[in-house]
Design goal:
Structural class of chain A: alpha/beta
Oligomer: homodimer
CATH class of the largest domain in chain A: Alpha Beta
Largest sheet of chain A: 7 strands, parallel
Strand order of the largest sheet of chain A: 2-1-7-6-5-4-3
Radius of gyration of chain A: 19 Å
Helix content of chain A: 40-55%
Shape of chain A: globular
Number of strands of chain A: 7
CATH superfamily of the largest domain in chain A: Aldolase class I
């Protein structure tokens, strides 16, 4: 299996638009995905920042179908398919493969805590065996601050030994650079290690990593792509600094409502601010402060910002 | 709305049997539920110890339908219906109400961490409004050691003020007796506070609580029921001590595989040991030790133990 079929570069965990009645909005999602692809950013739909865990399996299947039907290239998609329930993960993963997705991003089952690596291995193995497709490429999703259940370096070793053609890489959202480095160094270039944000992008690429999958790519794709392309040039350090500067404007842990507020503002489209419970909208004070900071940085969303000049 | 329609007593979060191919086994589940009801223990199917979060929504609906079709009284059922996704929680809760279930046990959405009480309130409120049935009775499920997202006393206050007829009680699996006590004292007798295990049963009843929902009721229902009935008699302290003694035999955090191993042993039915990933079976060493301890306590499962004398 050639490593050439594996992903690298910059991906956005695509934010999911909702109508005011909280139903998913395929039209706005298609438009957003089209813009991200035009910026050469891949589509990690149904990630954490997509509110994917607030969507049912049928809702995710419907959205994926609508994207593909509307010409969004599935080869550029890495949908999240890891659920609590084994059978849900199998259903979603199978659908992603059958839809032609270039890979899937897979959380471990995350409800039961303190489970063993044996149990997690068995979970991933069952999904792989049940999907039973040589076209499946899994990018493991390690995000212990949210899922609480992680994917250890030792588990990655076991899985890649057992399924070398299927286990294609990992997204490391641990926030622990040493963990990312251990993954890159121990697994080699055919195993694609993505940082969970652009914060570590330059370090990731210099160490031999594959890129990043970052929430901020939803609003700042061009600048992140630029660093990805120019990381070996003298401009790289300054580009990384500018990425930090923009990221620092976005309030944590309110990243999702903040990203939606930015898109809503630049498109002059308030419906984009809608989030599903248990999340709550950003609120006016946070939004005003965010927009003020972005204005100071002369932030823009080219090709996505008809209303930008009047809003900032 | 009379408080008489609310639950009290002892409930088992009913363990879910699987076939060797990991599909749910309705036949064994029906037999287990029938036995639990004969011991006057209610059915909290699809709880944490039911591996409910390893089951898909269609699997849970199918199992609930099979139980009801086979004469298991839905009025004695409190199925777990709280999922990560709002739409899943609505689907399951609506199905439980339409099936005649006496109540539902509802986790908060548990993937996104650090969410506000406003967001959780909105989540529960959306489910209640969408189900839109006066027959709905919600027992909130507070289990921060597993779900990480809890249901605070303040959130309980807000929900009961907004939906006094719907929000019927809570299962407190925090392991923090002071939290249970605060819930009992602040909410009064019409709000049914269940302890998350029999460890606090006597204290719960003396303080004015409603009973317990405990994993060990899957194997030890009669003894737990006995304390529930005799808590005001001099025998109560000794009965509580005996419950502790048995519970201490069951290895944590391996409670689910241990309970299944006990049932498998007493029924001489090894298929009962099957668990879904990410859980793993108990293993021979743990099982042998467990059975030795149970034999020392002269533990039995009357009416469920044809094979017991030969196995212990």
């Amino acid at each position: 299996m050639p490593a050439a079929d594996r992903f690298s570069g910059v991906f956005a965990p695509v934010i999911t638009p909702f109508h005011e009645d909280l139903s998913p909005d395929p039209e706005r999602l298609i438009a957003h995905c089209r813009w991200l692809l035009s910026e050469d950013v891949g589509l990690a739909v149904f990630g954490t920042n997509s509110e994917a865990n607030s969507l049912s399996v049928p809702e995710k299947i419907e959205l994926l179908d609508r994207l593909v039907e509307n010409g969004i290239d599935p080869a550029r998609m890495m949908p999240g398919t890891g659920c609590c329930a084994l059978t849900d993960s199998v259903t979603l993963t199978r659908h992603a493969v059958n839809s032609g997705c270039g890979g899937v991003l897979m959380l471990p089952p995350f409800y039961y805590k303190g489970v063993s690596d044996d149990g997690l291995f068995r979970s991933f193995a069952e999904i792989i065996e049940r999907v039973g497709s040589a076209d499946l490429r899994i990018y493991l999703y390690h995000i212990p601050p949210v899922s609480q259940v992680g994917v250890s370096v030792e588990l990655v070793e076991r899985l890649t030994r057992a399924y070398p053609d299927i286990i294609a890489g990992i997204k490391d959202s641990s926030g622990d650079w040493n963990n990312t480095l251990a993954l890159i160094e121990r697994r080699g270039a055919d195993f694609r290690v993505f940082s969970g944000s652009e914060t570590f992008l330059l370090r990731n690429l210099r160490a031999g990593g594959a890129g990043c999958i970052s929430a901020t790519a939803n609003v700042n794709p061009a600048a992140i792509r630029r660093l990805y392309e120019l990381w070996q040039t003298p401009a790289a350090t300054e580009l990384q600094r500018e990425l930090h500067e923009l990221r620092d404007c976005l309030p944590m842990p309110l990243m999702i409502p903040a990203l939606k507020a930015v898109v809503a503002t630049f498109l002059d489209d308030p419906e984009w601010e809608t989030v599903r419970p248990p999340l709550t909208p950003l609120g006016r004070d946070h939004r005003d402060l965010l927009l003020k900071k972005l204005a100071e940085l002369k932030f823009a969303m080219p090709g996505r910002s008809a209303a930008s000049s009047s809003r900032l």
